[in-house]
């Protein structure tokens, strides 16, 4: 899995990592039993503070996506496997409607974020 962050984004860095892990698990790029990189290693490769990565890992643990095991690190749980095909189909229809309405990507993203808060 390739980790990417956008320092210019309004979304906190740890939240970007959490979102990427969820998406990778849903797409099958992360399978149950897979190990995530050590927090220090990931922080170094992304030029982040190690506490940012640890916060992301703790949230992923709290959400049930990973287990944090002493000496083994972060391991993906069986609960991580999900079928996103219905969400992807709905998203494709939403993107088509947004384009037809000539909404900018920013406005479309804002709509999604607001809808997720409800």
UniProtKB/TrEMBL annotation:
Database matches in PROSITE patterns: HTH_GNTR
Top-level taxonomic group: Bacteria
Keywords: DNA-binding, Transcription, Transcription regulation
Protein species of origin: Isoptericola variabilis (strain 225)
MF annotations from Gene Ontology: DNA binding; DNA-binding transcription factor activity
Xref: InterPro entries: Tscrpt_reg_HTH_GntR, WH-like_DNA-bd_sf, WH_DNA-bd_sf
Domain HTH gntR-type: 11-79
Protein's name in the database: Transcriptional regulator, GntR family
């Amino acid at each position: 899995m390739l980790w990417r962050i956008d320092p210019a984004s309004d979304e906190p860095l740890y939240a970007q990592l959490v979102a990427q892990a969820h998406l990778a698990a849903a797409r099958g790029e992360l399978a149950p039993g897979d190990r995530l990189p050590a927090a220090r290693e990931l922080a170094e490769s992304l030029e982040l503070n190690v506490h940012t990565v640890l916060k992301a890992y703790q949230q992923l643990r709290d959400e049930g996506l990973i287990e944090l095991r002493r000496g083994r690190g972060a391991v993906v749980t069986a609960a991580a496997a999900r079928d996103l095909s219905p969400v992807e189909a709905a998203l494709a229809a939403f993107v088509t409607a947004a384009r037809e309405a000539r909404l900018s990507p920013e406005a479309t993203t804002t709509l999604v974020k607001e809808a997720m808060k409800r």
